[in-house]
Design goal:
By secondary structure, this protein is an alpha+beta fold. The protein contains 13 helices and 24 strands.
C-alpha cells in the first residue's frame, strides 16, 4: 500500500493536509488562516467567577469568550507556594474538592485548551497540562511514566517504560510514550524528551514574566502538527506545493526526523496538487449525505445538533443466499467506510449507526470486533456500546472542533438548515389565510402585503378571484407587493 501526505498551502487564506492510501483519501485537515485557534495552547488566565452550582469556573484566558474549567480538571497548587503556577500536587485518590475551595475569584491559573469553543460555548480548559512531541507527551503535573493504549504488545510496553525511566528528568514530570514511539531507538526518544524539557523551561520563564491573561505556549500550526503526528516510516511520500512551507518542514525534519527527510518533495506540476491526485473530487463527495459503497450498498449520514445518524443500506447488495449471511457481510464491508467518514468529516458527539439487523449473537460480536479494530486508526477518543437489540450501535467520538460541514458551510437563509421550504401552493394558501386573519382585526381600509417575488406572482395570477372576494367581504383594498429581499416563507402585512 502506498501512503502519501499532501500539503496544499498556496491559497492565502487556507491550508489543507490530505493523507492518501493508494490514492484514496483517508484523512483530511483544513485550517483557515484568519480563524483564531486555541486548541492545545497554554494560557495564564484569571478566574472570573467560580460557580458552585455547576462545580466549575469561568476563566479569562484572552479568548473571545471566557473558558470553562470544571472542578475535575483542576489540580490543587502546592500549599507552600500558591504563587508558583507551574508546581502542582496530586489530588488524593477518590477525594472531590469543591470548586470554591480550589479556586477564588481573581486568582491566576495556568490552563490548557482541550476543546475549542463551538457555537456560543466557550473553550474547555484543564490545569493538567500536556505538551506533545513526536514520540512522547510531557506532562509537567503528573509524575508518572506511561505508554499509549494503542501500543498493545506487553513486551514493547515494558521495554518503553524501562527506557524512559533511565532518562534524567525532573522528578515531578511525567511522560507518555506515543504510538509513534514504539520501535524507535533510545537516542530518538531521548532527543524528543530533551526537546520537550527545554520547551517546558521556556514556558516556566514566560509564566513568571507575563501578566494574565497571556498566551504562554502556542500549539504548532496545522502543517507542523500533522507532520509531527502523522509522518511516520510507513509514509512513502510527503509532497508540498509551497516552497516556503517545504523549507519549514525540512528544518523541522532535520531536528526531529532526519532519517525521513529524503521522503519530502516539492511539487511543481502544472495542475494544482489536489487536482493532480484527484483529491478535490473526493473532498466534494464528503458534503453529500449519501455515500455509495463499492458493493452496491450505501451509507446515509445525517447530522443534527444533538447527534449524528448513519444508516447502512444494502441497496443492490445480494452477495449471499441467506438473509443473515447477507446482513453480516454487508455490515462488515460497511464498517471501514463508516470509520473513514467519521475521520474525514470530523464528526463528534453522540453517533448512532443503524446496522442491518442480525439475529445471531455471534454475528453481532464479529461486527463489534471489526468496528473496534477500525476505530483504532482514529486519533480522537471513541467510546462504543454493544449493538442493541434493534441493530443500533451507539458511540461517542471526541469533538475537538466543528465538523468539516459546519466549518465549510453556513446555514441556508431560506430553509434555515432544515433542507425544506414550503411548496408554492402552501405559500399561496398561507398568504390568503394571513390576509383574512389580519383583515378581521385591522380597522384600516387598505392592507399592504409584501412577499417574495415568486409568491406575489403566484397569488396575483392564480388567486386573483380569491383576493377580489376578500376585498368585497371585508370592504378593504388589498395590495400585493413583491420584494426580492423578503425570504420565500416570510409574509409582511401592514394596514394603511
Amino acid at each position: 500500500m502506498t501512503r502519501q501526505i499532501l500539503v496544499n498551502d498556496l491559497e492565502p487564506g487556507e491550508v489543507r493536509v490530505a493523507v492518501l492510501n493508494d490514492g484514496v483519501l483517508d484523512d483530511l485537515s483544513i485550517e483557515r488562516k484568519n480563524h483564531r485557534k486555541y486548541l492545545g495552547n497554554i494560557y495564564k488566565g484569571r478566574i472570573m467567577n467560580p460557580e458552585p452550582s455547576i462545580q466549575a469556573a469561568f476563566v479569562d484566558f484572552g479568548g473571545d469568550r471566557n473558558g470553562f474549567l470544571h472542578a475535575s480538571d483542576v489540580m490543587p497548587l502546592y500549599e507552600d507556594d500558591p504563587e508558583d503556577l507551574t508546581a502542582f500536587q496530586k489530588r488524593p485518590a477518590g477525594k472531590h474538592i469543591p470548586i470554591q475551595e480550589l479556586l477564588r475569584q481573581g486568582q491566576d491559573v495556568l490552563v490548557q485548551v482541550t476543546k475549542d469553543g463551538i457555537g456560543k460555548k466557550g473553550a474547555t480548559l484543564t490545569t493538567y497540562l500536556s505538551i506533545p512531541g513526536k514520540y512522547m507527551v510531557l506532562m509537567p503535573s503528573l509524575a508518572r511514566v506511561g505508554v499509549s493504549k494503542k501500543v498493545r504488545d506487553v513486551e514493547v510496553r515494558r521495554r518503553l517504560k524501562a527506557t524512559i525511566r533511565e532518562f534524567e528528568r525532573p522528578p515531578e514530570m511525567g511522560v507518555i510514550v506515543r504510538t509513534a514511539g514504539a520501535g524507535r531507538s533510545k537516542e530518538e526518544l531521548k532527543r524528543d524528551l530533551d526537546y520537550l524539557i527545554r520547551l517546558w523551561e521556556q514556558i516556566e520563564n514566560r509564566v513568571k514574566s507575563s501578566r494574565s491573561p497571556a498566551t504562554i505556549y502556542r500549539e504548532s500550526d496545522l502543517v507542523i502538527r500533522t507532520i509531527r503526528d502523522t509522518f511516520t516510516p510507513d509514509v512513502d511520500e510527503l509532497i508540498v506545493d509551497s516552497e516556503e512551507v517545504y523549507e519549514r518542514i525540512d528544518d523541522f525534519l532535520a531536528d526531529l526526523m532526519p532519517d525521513l527527510r529524503d521522503r519530502l518533495m516539492l511539487f511543481d506540476g502544472e495542475r494544482p496538487l489536489f487536482h493532480a491526485w484527484r483529491v478535490e473530487e473526493q473532498i466534494e463527495r464528503l458534503f453529500s449525505h449519501r455515500v455509495p459503497l463499492a458493493n452496491g450498498g450505501s451509507l446515509i449520514i445525517e447530522q443534527t445538533e444533538a447527534l449524528v445518524s448513519i444508516d447502512v443500506n444494502s441497496g443492490r447488495y445480494k452477495k449471499e443466499d441467506d438473509l443473515e449471511d447477507t446482513a453480516l457481510a454487508m455490515n462488515l464491508e460497511a464498517i471501514p467506510e463508516v470509520c473513514r467518514q467519521l475521520r474525514l468529516r470530523d464528526l463528534g458527539g453522540l453517533i448512532v449507526i443503524d446496522m442491518i439487523d442480525m439475529r445471531e449473537a455471534q454475528n453481532r460480536r464479529d461486527v463489534e470486533r471489526r468496528l473496534l479494530r477500525e476505530l483504532r486508526k482514529d486519533r480522537a477518543r471513541v467510546r462504543v456500546a454493544p449493538i442493541s437489540e434493534f441493530g443500533l450501535v451507539e458511540l461517542t467520538r471526541q469533538r475537538l472542533r466543528p465538523s468539516l460541514k459546519q466549518a465549510t458551510y453556513t446555514q441556508c437563509p431560506v430553509c434555515r438548515g432544515s433542507g425544506y421550504v414550503k411548496s408554492m401552493e402552501s405559500m399561496v394558501l398561507k398568504t390568503l389565510r394571513e390576509i383574512r386573519a389580519f383583515a378581521r382585526l385591522e380597522k384600516s381600509t387598505r392592507i399592504e402585503v409584501t412577499v417574495a417575488p415568486e409568491v406575489a406572482g403566484s397569488v396575483l395570477n392564480r388567486e386573483r378571484s380569491a383576493l377580489v372576494e376578500l376585498e368585497q367581504h371585508f370592504d378593504k383594498q388589498i395590495e400585493i407587493r413583491s420584494d426580492p429581499h423578503v425570504r420565500f416563507e416570510d409574509i409582511r402585512i401592514q394596514g394603511r
